[in-house]
Amino acid sequence: MNLTRDRVVSPILFAIASFSITALFVIGVFIFVEGLPVMLRVGVWKFIGSSEWLPLEGKFGILAMIVGSITVAVGTLVVAVPLGVGCAVYLSEFASKRAVAIIKPSIELLFAIPSVVYGFIGVLFIVPFMREHFGGDGHGFNIVTASFVLGIMVLPVIVGISVDALQAVPKVYRDGSLALGATQWQTTTMVTLKAARSGILAGVILGMANAIGETMAVIMVVGNAVVMPNSPLDSVRTLTGNIALEMGYATGDHRQALFATGVVLLVMIMMLNTLTRYVTRKRVARQ
Amino acid sequence: MDKSYPLQTRNLNLYYRKFHALKDVTMSVEARTITAIIGPSGCGKSTLVRCFNRMNDTILGARVEGRILVEGRDIYAPDTDLTQLRKTAGMVFQHPTPFPLSIFDNVAYGPRVHGESRPEELNGIVEQSLQSVHLWDELKDRLHEPALDLSPEQQQRLCIARLAAVRPRIILMDEPCSALDPIATSHIEELMEELVRDYTILIVTHNMAQAARVSKNTAFMLLGELVEYGETARIFQAPKDNRTKEYIGGRYG
């Protein structure tokens, strides 16, 4: 009886697992089939190397948006890495059990807030603040604003993975350092963080991938102008923002060019994922 | 200050929460000798040795009563400098624990955390420390390779060199050979016999033969109590306490 059940369950689970992989595969194929032709017609280098985006005149150059996505992602890391790693170090090395019990679930809760709410808070508070105190061409809708909003958003990813990495460091390293008369802070910076660095790096890269992939919160605060930014206070458009903003009315080549934008995005995310895998694999090999 | 007994406890009791791990232990360790603590697993011997550099502080719920004197000073006195204490009484752990850094950075770690940053000084300390554990000739051309690539014996020697670099006067060893093979063990024992000219060594071991080979004095512990303490030869040949006799005779542990 049980044996028969096993014989039935296994193929069903296999089917379910295959479904997820199939979905991934189909999405990939679909985006490439829709996006590649126009990319090849325009020329791959022209498509990703020019910043002239005039879809109604048939000019498709997404360089400004690639730069937009990358600057916003880097800005996000500038905000999120010190906050996230600092928080992880506190939680893992210094905080009392009670503090951890309060802080860690709170940070995880950040993950549950819908991104549109982050965008909303950004528009209501950070944009006016930036406009009044810093000005700039974006009138508050700029790279710095988007970096702050996304920086808080990706915090749970970086904190979660960094805490895991720090707690995976064997206690013997900490004991060895303390027994040599090092303070707890010296132990943390000179031994524990060094031992955990590949895990922390993996968290940072994953946070960056999240930042590049985020759409709604960014659209609401970044201004979406298709220009090469000259300063952090300029407005930019990201690759994800471009697709979301124009898909509603695009037809023909324009529509295909948006799929091609998706191709570029997919390749960028895949590169970051591979980097994460490479970084973590090296860690396993060394221990 | 009692110079000839750098490690002393007076009616030491230690609790892990409710567990009474050390019961009224009073002992004095003679300077520049090797003193061994033997006893079955869980008898409190590691706990005792970890008292002397206050490593039990890192364990949640550990509580100490009684007095612990290192070089005559009560190490639980409010003005105790923990850094200074751990520089005076260094520790070698059961498993070799080099940091995931280069060989050089491992040995230079202690001096660096204590504020030494001049490269010539650090080079000198690293060379001297590695010399003292006979690793210099093997490793002088590999100083910047990861310490974790070394053999277990080399790793344990490196840990002793790392300790020597902070110039302690006392070395506490918590089963330093239990992760090593017999040949490596005999090498580490030879090293201990050299080191005892400069250091007071207190070693915890579950290996009675090792205690008999290297130590001048031996303490036998059972269930948190210091049962018997005296000259090694006497303890092994003519134990006074019946429990010591039974343990040495191989009845338990």
Describe this protein's structure.
The complex is a heterodimer of chains A (287) and B (253). Chain A is built from twelve helices and two strands. Chain A has 287 residues and is mainly alpha-helical. Chain A has two domains: 48 residues; 223 residues, MetI-like fold (Orthogonal Bundle). In chain A, helix 9 runs antiparallel to helix 12. The longest helix of chain A is centred in the N-terminal third of the chain and has 41 residues. Chain A is globular and about 70 Å long. With 253 residues, chain B is α/β, with parallel strands linked by helices. Chain B has a domain of 172 residues: Rossmann fold (3-Layer(aba) Sandwich). In chain B, the strands form two sheets. Chain B has a six-stranded mixed sheet with strand order 6-7-8-3-9-10, with helices on both faces. Chain B is globular and about 55 Å long. The termini of chain B are far apart. The mean pLDDT of chain B is 90. Chains A and B meet through helix 8 and helix 9 of A and helix 2, helix 3 and helix 6 of B.
Q: What's this entry about, in short?
A:
The complex is a heterodimer of chains A (287) and B (253). Chain A has 287 residues and is mainly alpha-helical.
> What is the typical, i.e. mean, pLDDT of chain B?
90
Largest sheet of chain B: 6 strands, mixed
Number of self-contained structural domains of chain A: 2
CATH topology (level 3) name of one domain in chain B: Rossmann fold
| Distance between the first and last residues' Cα of chain B | 38 Å
Query: Helix segment count of chain B?
Result: 10
Supply the helix-strand structural class of chain B.
alpha/beta
Total count of helical runs of at least 4 residues of chain A: 12
The CATH homologous superfamily name of one domain in chain B equals P-loop containing nucleotide triphosphate hydrolases
CATH C-level category of the largest domain in chain A: Mainly Alpha
Assign the structural class of chain A, choosing from mainly alpha, mainly beta, alpha/beta, alpha+beta, or little secondary structure: mainly alpha
CATH topology of the largest domain in chain A: MetI-like fold
The Cα radius of gyration of chain A reads 23 Å
Topology order of chain A in helix (H) and strand (E) letters = HHEEHHHHHHHHHH
CATH architecture of the largest domain in chain A: Orthogonal Bundle
Give the termini separation of chain A: 45 Å
H and E string of chain B: EEEHEEHEHHHHEHEHEEHH
Strand order in the sheet with the most strands of chain A: 1-2
Shape of chain B: globular
Mean pLDDT of chain A: 90
